[in-house]
UniProtKB/TrEMBL annotation:
Protein name: GTP-binding protein HSR1-related protein
InterPro entries: Dynamin_N, P-loop_NTPase, TRAFAC_Dynamin-like_GTPase
Residue span(s) of domain Dynamin N-terminal: 75-235
Coiled coil: 351-421
PANTHER family: SARCALUMENIN, TRANSMEMBRANE GTPASE FZO
Record keywords: Coiled coil
Native organism: Thermovibrio ammonificans (strain DSM 15698 / JCM 12110 / HB-1)
SUPFAM superfamilies: P-loop containing nucleoside triphosphate hydrolases (SSF52540)
Amino acid sequence: MSKQAQTNNMLPKEEQRLTRELEKLLDVISMCRDINNDFRRQQFRKEFEEIEKKALEVFKQQLLHQENRGKINLTIIGNFSSGKSSIINALLGDDVCAVKVNPTTSSITRFIYGEEERIFQILSDGTKKEISKEKYLESSQHKISNMEKTEVAFFEYQYPSPLLENIILYDTPGFENPENKTDEIVTKTVFKEKADAVLFVQDISKPSLEETTKKRIETLKKEKADIPWILVLNKADIASEENINTVLSFWKENNNGLFNKVIVYSAKAVRDLQTIERAQREIESKIIDALLKKKTVSISIETDKKKPLFKKKRTSSRSQKVEIKLETDEGTEIFEYQTVGERDKKLFEAHKKLLETFKELSLQKEELLERRIQKLKKELVEVANKNLEKVKVSPEEFEPIQELKETLKFLNSLQEEARSTVIRNPRADLTAIVKDVLDYLERKRKLLKLDSTLIKKSKKAVKEAYSNTRDKLEAIRDFFTPIINHLEGQLKSLEARGKEQAKHTGEKLQKLKDTINSINKSIQTPQKQTSRKTKSNCIILNTRDLELIRQVKSIWKDVLKDALAADNELSHKSKRKSTILEKWIFLKDVKKFLKKELKIDEYLLDKALKQALHHDPRDPYPTFSETVNSFFEYLVELINENY
């Protein structure tokens, strides 16, 4: 089996269904062209062209749906310096956009997924030129040189962020920039041409919108009424809880349908948290690597306040500086990082809420596209059924059978007329009688496939005719008989070919009708969503691993009971949470059991173990039970991917 064939077989069921639908539409298009070319006079050209045009329209929409399935074009709009670029940095987890006090973004940047970080200038003529990050940061900012007329249409930023697998981000200059009035025009253009949803960013310290901004939003909403708008109140890290509650109350009373959702957010808090997470993971990776290599490990933890890090209740909302000393067989390493404060955790929940909103928007867009495609398919079926009723398949439609029959009838009538004329008037001139016949035959010679020698021979028979009646009648017979015999033989051949072609085209036509019926059936039977959600994405279970996963889940329940008991013991007796070393020892025994009893590959067990021991930045010190759940969730996912 080829690599491509293997890839196709591994496609999820929904992708396979969409691919089959595309193939059906391509079949309709090609069959319409093929059948139309079969007909000699193409008298049904209009009917087939209408079907083909509608099928092509559905195909383009279906292809667009498949290529961008689950993706949304998210346009980020707002007044200048409200933190639009900061939010993009937070969403992507990296400083990809320039962030300053003064308005910075002067051009449109489209952020799409890429295997590696690459930036391109897209010129107004469509030319694509790769540039450095330094060049991008300079070119995309508001400077006097950049505010002049430029040939750059927009920038394309390719970045390996999981978020960009489902979202295409558009960073815009925004509104209300006194230094450059063209920003508003550029922003509106992107909204009209690209937006599936809008993230409107507003500084939380300025909760109410300017009247001009409000009017702009209302105007844009009228142009694309079905586009959801989400208000993000940024810079919440500098606002008090009381101010945040006041702002939320204000928007609850004054929204008036302007925004579909209001989210309090802090791009700075999210970026700080991501920096902490990166430092934590670096430390954890070294600890876990040492454990996996079966080294002797000793860990000691101290905080800057000389207090236990794990208190039952932490009243402080601030983070703590932590020093971790890792002693192994190879020596001692000291690491420092900061824990996550309670306030930062709360602000990070808004980040999660925003990401969940993106998923909802993606589903809404998919449903909208699906409805649009279903409507187009319905129109295709109606157009096809209406036009195919007019199409008649018979031998006469493929060969000039009818014309030949009419010619034979005409020649036989002329022969009888010539004989009657000679009998009535023996002195009649045969040349004059057959002149019109010869002219007619000459005009029809190509269509009737008459040999010029045959016509000349018949003409010669008339010229050499005797003057008496008997000789003239024989001359008439010698003139008409070869031609009529030839045409009769030609008619039999055409009828045989026409019958065969009619049968062949009839089969094609029936296949086209069956394909149309199949498309109609897919409209009437909505597709069921059968995929099951896991921690990272959707997986499809098959019969080969169902039994293994059932056994793993059974063990999961038993191990979870032991983990909960261990959590309770630590909480009530020791007044602390479990350490990473304690969780490692606990899961190490589980790993041995799974390897021995279920014969699961040790590589998969180690991979799941390593993933589970990595801390979540929102909860840096998870319990035994939380770590056990993470371990088994990862393991089930790995089994499905590898078995």
